[in-house]
Amino acid sequence: MNETIEFLKNRRSYRDFDENYVLPNEELQAIVDAARQAPSWMNGQFYSIIVVKDNVIREQLVKWNPGNPQILKSSVFLIFVGDLYRTKMVSKAHESPYLIDESIEPIILATTDAALALENAVIAAESLGLGSVVVGSIRKHGKEISQLLELPEHTFPLFGLSIGKPTVAMEVKPRLPEKAVVHYDKFQLYNYSLIEEYNETMEIFGEARETKQWSQKFSDYFAAEPVMITDQLLEMQGLLKK
């Protein structure tokens, strides 16, 4: 097995960082450059990256996300934004209509491009001996964050990334059984026992922050009344029709 694949298979999330560690500018630049080189549909690059160094801004983000204190304690916090404002500028320059709210497709494009850039940043950071953790909970305060960061119309914050020097070693988290995820040629139905097997695997792994079985956690999540925060943000930003 080559070193790159071994490196990818051993990726893990870190939430405890050395608060005194200063990330060199050249390493931050290397991470951002790697993120920007990620694959993108038609080379559209439908995202922006907000590099948040200002502690006042980060403190406010932690107030909204108290379960993620690493937003402030890491060396830097990146916010990946779905960006369809840039193509609004393009449409205006070409004097063409911009039917951005006629379909969910542009939102999927922007989300996918941002996610690919995020993963490149994760891998680049780890290759430099750093640690990182993705913060998806920023979407719960997407409207407030959009105002805080002065995001223009047709943009929406998707996820954050804390990067820094880890202070606590983490184990590689087990993934679902391969047969529940990987299919050849056609989707293959599988027995629910694979999910029960994964429940047991995660219980043995014993991650302290998990208080429920894997299956119970997502059964509860999707049984709850949907919170329409993201829908409201997309409407506010002119990406969904009201």
Automatic annotation (TrEMBL):
The keyword Flavoprotein applies. Coiled coil: none annotated. This is NADPH-dependent oxidoreductase. Residues 8-165 form the Nitroreductase domain. GO terms for molecular function: oxidoreductase activity. Keywords: Flavoprotein, FMN, NADP, Oxidoreductase. SUPFAM superfamilies: FMN-dependent nitroreductase-like (SSF55469). It comes from Enterococcus quebecensis. PANTHER family: OXYGEN-INSENSITIVE NADPH NITROREDUCTASE. Pfam families: Nitroreductase. Belongs to the flavin oxidoreductase frp family. The lineage of its organism: Bacteria, Bacillati, Bacillota, Bacilli, Lactobacillales. It comes from the Bacteria.
